[in-house]
């Protein structure tokens, strides 16, 4: 994994475009987007690399810029991990652990070379504190995703 600061106008344009494809982030106005941009980094992963692991502390929110990832959930200690979702450009993950302060409910693994925009937990909480409707919408989406995982 390689990490880069999002500094160029090209990177900011790519991130902004990715945000506009994410349903609940598409409502951010220019002022809110400008609050987020200074905190965002870009990480590049190779195929097979794990972005985050089930059971680990949630430390970041991810928006897929390029690539394909699988979301894998292992329901029990002696069970096999199964792919519950596939993520691609414009998709996101990581909001559940950031909102609930619980361990990650699934692992996310790169199926091919992948580029992610990353907002850390600390910075994510700051952005949420600045926009209550945004925070409420994130909480509803996280609850729906957790319910879907619990149902298997």
Describe the protein in words:
The model has no long low-confidence stretch (mean pLDDT 84). The chain starts with a strand and ends with a helix. It is globular. It has a 5-stranded antiparallel beta sheet with strand order 1-2-9-4-7. It contains 5 helices and 9 strands, in the order E-H-H-E-E-E-E-E-E-H-E-E-H-H. It has a single domain, classed as Jelly Rolls. The protein is of the alpha+beta class. A hairpin with an 8-residue loop joins strand 5 and strand 6.
Please state the second-level CATH architecture.
Sandwich
Number of domains: 1
CATH superfamily: Jelly Rolls
Low-pLDDT parts are: none
Order of helices and strands: EHHEEEEEEHEEHH
| SS-derived structural category | alpha+beta
Alpha-carbon distance between the two ends:
30 Å
**Helical proportion, percent range:** 25-40%
- The coarse overall form would be globular
């Amino acid at each position: 994994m390689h990490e880069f600061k999002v500094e160029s106008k090209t990177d900011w344009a790519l991130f902004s475009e990715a945000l506009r494809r994410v349903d609940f982030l598409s409502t951010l106005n220019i002022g809110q987007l400008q609050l987020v941009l200074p905190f965002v980094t870009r990480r590049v992963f190779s195929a097979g690399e794990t972005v985050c692991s089930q059971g680990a502390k949630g430390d970041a929110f991810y928006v897929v810029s390029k690539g394909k990832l699988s979301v894998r959930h292992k329901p029990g200690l002696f069970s096999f991990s199964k792919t519950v979702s596939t993520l691609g450009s414009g998709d996101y993950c990581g909001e559940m652990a950031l909102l609930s302060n619980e361990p990650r409910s699934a692992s996310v693994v790169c199926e091919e070379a992948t580029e992610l925009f990353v907002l850390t937990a600390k910075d994510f909480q700051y952005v949420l504190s600045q926009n209550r409707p945004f925070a409420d919408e994130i909480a509803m989406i996280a609850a729906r995703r957790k319910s879907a995982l619990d149902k298997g």
